[in-house]
């Protein structure tokens, strides 16, 4: 499996892990505390501060997926993984790190650290786009 395919699979797996965490917290609230399953706020704010951060970390993943996932999918579909392979696992690592910092804290410092990891992903996406366009112009 190429690093690009591994990063794409890892990204989707990470989103599934986060959504499973949300479901575990909500199932616990239903079974242990008698909470009605149709009463949860989408952002998790009515469960706990951690649940709120977990929902936001998951939302950050799917909000970025059209960009990162789209570029990874494009590279795979057009046999241009040479463009994405070298940085694909760095993007995945930055995505997971961003989520883990989000889960750990909601402080201003944590938000700045999260932004740094998000910025890594955006910079890599711009690099990939520039390389893809350069291949298009050259080819």
TrEMBL record:
Keywords: Membrane, Transmembrane, Transmembrane helix
Protein name in the entry: MAPEG family protein
Record's GO cellular component terms: membrane
Organism the protein comes from: Cognatilysobacter bugurensis
Keyword Transmembrane helix: yes
SUPFAM superfamilies reported for this sequence: MAPEG domain-like
Main location group: membrane
UniProt-annotated location(s): Membrane
InterPro entries given in the database record: MAPEG-like_dom_sf, Membr-assoc_MAPEG
Stretches that traverse the bilayer: 6-25, 115-134
Organism superkingdom: Bacteria
């Amino acid at each position: 499996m190429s690093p690009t395919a591994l990063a794409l699979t890892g990204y989707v797996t990470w989103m599934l892990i986060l959504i499973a965490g949300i479901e575990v917290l909500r199932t616990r609230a239903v079974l242990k505390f008698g909470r009605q399953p149709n009463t949860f706020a989408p952002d998790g704010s009515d469960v706990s501060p951690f649940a709120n951060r977990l929902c936001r970390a998951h939302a950050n993943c799917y909000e970025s997926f059209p960009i990162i996932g789209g570029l990874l999918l494009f590279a795979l579909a057009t046999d241009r993984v040479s463009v994405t392979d070298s940085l694909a696992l760095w993007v995945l690592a930055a995505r997971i790190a961003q989520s883990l910092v989000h889960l750990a804290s909601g402080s201003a410092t944590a938000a700045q650290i999260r932004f740094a990891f998000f910025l890594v992903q955006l910079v890599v996406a711009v690099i990939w786009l520039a390389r893809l366009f350069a291949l298009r112009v050259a080819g």
